[in-house]
Structures are given as C-alpha cells and as structure tokens.
C-alpha cells in the first residue's frame, strides 16, 4: 500500500499536460522505480501524481531523416538495450544502460526518468553527455530543445519548467557518426548497485588510426551532476596516439572534476579512480576503433 | 535405505509452486497492523511523547508508548531456559523503552487499520529526548568515564572470560623466538534473510496466540510469556514455513511486543511486519570483533607461547552476549595447540544495534583473525602456508576436556589434502609465484573449527512424535524447525531408514505449534540433524517395536524373525513378505479385539557434542589500479560425518560460502559517527553479493561416520560460512604481497592498503586496454 493522495492516469500527452495544469502540485510518475522508493521512505508520502506510464506515444526509438536518433522518454532501459538503432549506432549507450539495477528495474525504469531525476550517479547520464545528447521538452507554450549539459542544473534539479514534460532524448548524427565509445561503471558489486563513478568516452580517429581527431569524455559522480571534462578532451584532441598521451589524458582529468567525500567513497579514492578509469576507457575506445597504442 | 540419497525436499513441490504458506499468507487480511517508532538519538531518555497529532490520523486504532508497557524485564536470546539462575541470559529488555541505548531503540507502537495510517501516525508522534553522550567503539566504551549503558555493567563490560595455560611470561623468554603480532578487524554484518521478521497475534480460548517467523517457537513462547508476565501455558506460538533466519530469528525479536499489542486491543488480530530498513538496525546483527593476536614461534615453526585478545561489540542490549566471543576464543587453543597461553575475551556494550546470533556464532570472526594470523606466521617463517597448517593443526586423537570432543579421524588433513588436489592449489601457487603488472592472481586457504550444538553449556534435548495412518504411512512431528535448510527432509529420511518404510511414506508436519508439537529447542548451533537424529531414531525404534509386536500376533512368527522392509512386514528367515504395513495398520486400528492407534513419542537427552572440521580454498584476480578483487573460484571441504542428503548438504555449503564471500569482500553496516545512525540500512547500500558477484562454488566432503551420532552426522549448518573470508584474504596476500587485516576487503580498504604499499604509483604501461574495469 502506497501513501499517495491521488494518482491521475494520463491517456494522452495532451491529457497529461492538462492534468498537470489542473493539479499543479502533482509530480509526474513514469516507471516509478525512484518515486515509489522515496514514497516508502516517507519523503514523497501523501503527494499527488500524474502517471504518464500508459502513454505509448512517448515510447520507442526512431532514426529521423537527418540521422538524429530520437529516444522517447518513456522507453524502458530494456528496450533501449535491445534497440537495433542503438546497437548499430550507439552501442555504448546500451553498454551503460545494461549496468543499471537488475532485470526488473531495467524493465520498469525509463531513460527519461533516469535523466529527469537529476542525479549524478544515473548510469545513462555520462554516456548521453558524451554523445552530445539533447533534451526535447513539451509544455503549455510548445516544444523546446536544449542540450543535456544545460538540462542538469544541480543535484536533483533539472531544467523542466512547471507544466512541462520531457518528451525525448535526441542524439544528432554529429554526435555519433564516426565515433567509438566505451563505458566503465565503477560500483561495489557487479549488479544492482549505485555507481561510485561512471565514465563514458567517445573518440573519432583519423583514417590512419594514428591520431585522435575528436574525443568527448563525461563522468557521473565526479561532481554534483554528470559532467564533461573539457581539459582532458583538449589534451587529446588532434594528438597522435601514444602511451604518454594516455597518461597526460588521465592527469588532465583532475582539472575538470570535483568529486566529494561522502560515506560512500572518499574524494582521494574517487580522484584516483577517475584517472584510472578515464585512461582505461580511452584505451578501450582506441582499441575498439582499430587503433593501437 | 533412504539415508545418503539426494531425495527431493519434502517441501519442494509446495515451495516451487507457491502453495507453501508463510506467516503473511496465513494472516487474516483484515488484521490490524502495527508499526514501531524508533528513537532518533543514540543515547538518552525520553522526556515526553506527544501523540495528539498522530491520534487524529484516520485509521489509527491505538498508540502505545514506553510509558504504557508492563515492567517485566526479559532476555531475548534463543537459549533453552536454565534451571540455574546463574546460567540464564541477561534480562535487560522491556517491550518499549524510555531509556534509549541506540539510534533506533523502540519508543512507541501504533496500531492502525492499515499500513499507510500506521506509517503516517508514526511520523506524527513527537518525542522529546534528553540526550546523553554515546560511544560506538567497544574499546572506547571500556575506558573509565565512557558513557554507561547499563547500571549493572561497569565500564560497559558484559562479559570477560580467559584461558590461561602454562607460564606465558616465562615461555616468551626462550631464545631465538620470532614474534608475530597483528590486529584484526571483523565487521558488523546483518543476516539479510529474504523474509523479514514478521508475526501476528490474537487472543483465543484464553490464550495469546502468536504466529511468527522464528527458528525457535518453544523458546519464543517462554520469552513472550515472561515479557507479558503470563503463565507459560497461556501463550501459544505457531511457526509456519519461514523465509530464512540465519540466527536473527534465534532471538525473541518483536513477538513479545506483538503479543502485548493484541492484549491492548481486546485480542483483535494485530500484524507486525518489520520493514527491511528496520530489520538492519532494530533486530540483530553479527558481533563485530577486534582481535589482537601475538605468537612467539620457534624457527622450526612450533609455538612457544600465544596471546589472544578479543573485543566484541555487543551493541545496546545483551541478547546472546558473551557467548559469541567466548566461542571464538574457545577455538583458538584447540586449532593450533600451544602449552603457554594467555587469552582474554571481552564483550562490551556500545550505543549500536544489538548483536545476537548469526550463522557461525563467533567463528567467522575468529577464523578471519586466526587464519590471517597463521598465514602471517608462515610467511614470517618462510614456510609454505599449507604445509605449515598441516604440521601444526590439531593432531589426530586430540580431545577437548570441556566438550569431550575428539578428533577421531584427522579430518583436517584429509580435508586439506582433498581440497588441495581438486582445487589444483599447488599448480596455481607455482603459476602465480612471480607476477608483476597491474592485474595479478593468487590462491589462499583457511581452515575452520566448529562444534555441533551446545552441550555441555546448555540443555540438549529433542522430542519426536510418529503417528501411523491406516495405509501404513506416518506423520512425523518434531520440535526442531525447518528454516529452509532441509531439516524436514533429513528427518523424513532418518524416519524412513529406521522404520523400514519408503521415504514417500513419511509425511512431515512442518509447522510447529507449541500447544501440539513435541518439545524441541529449535534451529541453531548447527544442531538439528545431530540432536534431532537421536529423538527420531529412538522414537522410530519404539514405533517399530510396537508394529512388530502386532505383526507377531498376526503372523504367529516371533519378533526376532520379523523386520520391516520397504513398508512391508518381512520374515527374515526367508525374506518372504507377510503383509504390507497398510494391511497391518488397518487391521490393528479396526480390530474388534486389540484396536490401537499406533503412535510413538519420546524425548532424548543428548550428552555429547562433535567436532565438525573443514577448509576453504580461494582463487582471486586483483586489479590493483582499480582496487578491485574478483573472486575466481571458491572451494569448501567439509567433514560433517555421514551425509544424510548429499544434494542438500551441497546446497547448504553453497549458501554458507555465499555469506562468506560477502563477509570477506563487501558487507558491512556503517554508522554515522556524529549521530550513531546506521547509514546503509537498505539492500542498495549494504553490499550483499548478487548472483553475478559469485564465482562457481565447489563443495567437497570427507565422510567420516561420527561415532557419537545417531546417524553418523554432525554440524553442517554454520561451518560453510566460517573459513571463506580468510581464504580470500590469504589469496589477496598471495597475489599482491599485501596482508590486509580488516574485513570486508572492499575497494576502499584496498585503496588505502595499496596506497601505503606503494602499489598505486604509475605503472600504467602494462594495463591491458579492455580488462578488468568493466566486468
């Protein structure tokens, strides 16, 4: 038995938006895998909810004419993992998402929920950021699209205006074409765990595989929200591949990150892991892309 | 012969189809529900409680606080009652308390029509506290001036026992001794049984009836009656199937409170289910014990003198108390005998969750410390760790004067040899001898010592009833409890074997009802197949004698020429079947001359105990820069005597090994130093191993028929969880050269240890691009 004041079941996106207008204090519930736990803890007890779970129009993954991959916000993690479009163009996202929770959570949890929570440890966050993903939002005033990097504001807070729904995550062709990605989750056990750190790297190599033309690296839990590491990216962009470059890349991460000490892990430990993971993920990308170090 | 066969569990069909009914399935759906308000301070006094807002919550039936409860102090440990008051458990609990001793202590209870109302009311109760300073570390708590938890225990010392032998001070003066010394830390862990503690209570026919998920129904009945100030016969305790206990349910947890709550609402049925979060901090945990061990060793490896200190963290209330540390200490001089000993064990109250019984009862802690230490001794002497153990472990024929246990068969060396060979220990030792690089592998071993049951410390008694049906099948009733370990199946196999009937002809009445079931103290101390076996054998033999007496009359053959085989009366002179048991039972029951309902019941008092020995072998891969250990293989070898059911024995070992993996690598209750609150009271933050964190588990057995035992069997419930963690620790030492004396060996611990050992300085060249990190 859950302690909720009311649950309004939306029948369409328009209906959902109307319900949100009617009940301005209601929270939106998708899969519920986070919200229901908070309710159990008493944190969201007694609140009103608008459920969007039945809205199939918000589900599914499509490839638009301009090559943009559009992932409906309600798409479950399991569906993202099994999507042919994802597997073909951005397998790194499937790798990252397959690390989430266990099978049950991946069946009920949604990619939209994972980003709308605004938590730094979300397993999809870093990878979507390393793919330069964008967020499509719809509200009473229409639709807007913003970069995921701007979507995250601070822990637990994202740029969703009152009355808005996150409709989809968008990954443009420039975000993935020619790139090879690798994701490393660091957790205390191999399933059903919260990330101590998550690291996602995407690289594009030159035709001769000797040079890193472009690199995007993003981390979860290296700061209050998922973040890109511009200094580290700059060190390798346009550089020729070598062992020294790998070390330089690892060292450069320190300038970008801001991990904290919590009872879950010490700052010094996280910093050590950030360097180790960044370097390993970059090496893995280069190897996967056919380069040698 | 039913013994020694991997019979399918008698409860398997019901459990796999979902037909088996557990406490919550049996509870009336319109029962009231109760919730407990736990303290939000670690130490202090409740000054006042304001329930006015909570009373207004729709659906609230009654709110009861620490100021309402009866003042009968009771102990909670699941031990048999002792006729000698000096041997009884400390009685330091009330149903609810105004004197707060840990963060999470029980302050008030809400009875409501549903869970939501109960939870809302608990949140709406306002408690005013006076806060006292608190202490979380046992050695700090022993110091003069530390916050005191209980008036009767100065310096918070609940128990202090010693084993002093020979002349330690003189012995350490011997020339040429090598001193090996270490501090070893074991963690507070929780049982994490699947089914949370749950009970429901109601009044009927002048009694308080409690249906509870417990390992010890007869003991919980006694404690519940004591806590309520009722005659013991006025409480009836029923135990249906339970979803695991691992020792947590070898304590009266909330059954006494639940029983009292129903009396406060006119006997209406009240259900009290403890949420997972509360199960962590408000039920029981395993004692964290800090050890200090020093060995004075001769160059040939023999021990001149040994010193042992243990500081056991009891938490806020006595529960099982000093028994745990005392048992751990008891193993020390027996494992590696030494003439000159100085051993001290302390159990100390702290403002933490209460430590009670947990699978292993002090031995997982003592084996982690002791087997880490022995590894370090061997290393200091430059000796092979396996050979060293074999040379100095308890010799064959060793007899312990207290338990009167005898090492009849040299089980240790047999287990080590079998494990070494099947594991390929020597080959791996060589293969991993000279590794560099970031990712290294290692192998390690550790042994364990265990007893069976608690004789001569406590009563060991077991009773059994066998009743025959008209078709020749029987019902079997035991006071000993099925808690998932397969006891019902083992007892059915024993009954079938002794009575001479097919296994399928034994119907086990699994549930215990203290108004109906014969007395038994329950599932703990790895005692049931051993202790229960005596009662089964004696009762089945009495039953058989009754049957053969009837057979004699019906066949006109002497009893000496008759036997029961495969459910038939057989003439032993020519093996001719005379009649089936069904024919005999029908005839006897409906006879117009000698009608009898054939049944037997007896109690067996057990005055023995038995050693159960074995060892673990572990293989690990350590990713040094990532501070991660991957357990590649774990093998356990046990001598638990004759196997009653090999498949169930193997499963028992697998489960115990799983707990050992968490103990060695990931599980630990963490507490906030500022408040005393548990930080990780949930299964996300408490790192219980998931299936993917387990390697393939191998269980091997050496079967030496135990001469003291009714069926040749001895302890296997707890032993499998005792030696895995130190084997893993020793494998990490083999792989990296770093000796880690703190369990669990988490990445956090490895980061500190590897940093200190200089292993984390840049060596990145050898990092394989794809390995390790993302497994």
Describe the model.
- Chain A is an alpha+beta fold.
- Chain A has 3 domains: 4-51, Uridine Diphospho-n-acetylenolpyruvylglucosamine Reductase, domain 2 (2-Layer Sandwich); 59-174, Uridine Diphospho-n-acetylenolpyruvylglucosamine Reductase, domain 3 (2-Layer Sandwich); 178-288, Enolase-like, domain 1 (2-Layer Sandwich).
- Chain A has 13 helices and 14 strands.
- Chain A has helices at residues 13-22, 35-40, 77-82, 84-89, 91-97, 103-108, 111-116, 125-130, 148-151, 173-176, 230-236, 243-256, 267-288; strands spanning 4-9, 27-29, 47-51, 61-63, 69-72, 134-139, 142-147, 152-154, 157-158, 165-171, 180-186, 197-205, 212-220, 227-228.
- Chain A has a 5-stranded antiparallel sheet. In chain A, strands 11-12-13-14 form a 4-stranded antiparallel sheet. Chain A has a 3-stranded parallel sheet with strand order 1-3-2, with helices on one face.
- Chain A is globular, with a radius of gyration of 19 Å.
- Chain B has 775 residues and is an alpha+beta fold.
- Chain B has 4 domains: 13-21 and 31-132 and 197-273, Aldehyde oxidase/xanthine dehydrogenase, a/b hammerhead (Aldehyde Oxidoreductase, domain 3, Alpha-Beta Complex), CATH 3.90.1170.50; 135-188 and 284-387, 2-Layer Sandwich (Aldehyde Oxidoreductase, domain 4), CATH 3.30.365; 393-452 and 609-775, Aldehyde oxidase/xanthine dehydrogenase, molybdopterin binding domain (Aldehyde Oxidoreductase, domain 4, 2-Layer Sandwich), CATH 3.30.365.10; 461-605, Aldehyde oxidase/xanthine dehydrogenase, molybdopterin binding domain (Aldehyde Oxidoreductase, domain 4, 2-Layer Sandwich), CATH 3.30.365.
- Helix content of chain B is 28%, strand content 24%.
- Chain B is built from 20 helices and 27 strands.
- In chain B, the strands form 6 sheets. Chain B has an 8-stranded mixed sheet with strand order 3-5-1-12-9-10-11-20, with helices on both faces.
- Chain B is globular and about 90 Å long.
- The A-B interface holds A 1-3, 42, 45-46, 95, 102, 182-186, 188-194, 196, 243, 246-247, 250, 263-266, 268-269, 272-273, 276-277, 279-281, 283-284, 286-287, 293 and B 114-116, 119-120, 123, 625-627, 666, 670, 672, 679, 683-685, 687, 689-693, 746-748, 751, 760, 762, 764-765, 767, 769-770, 772-775.
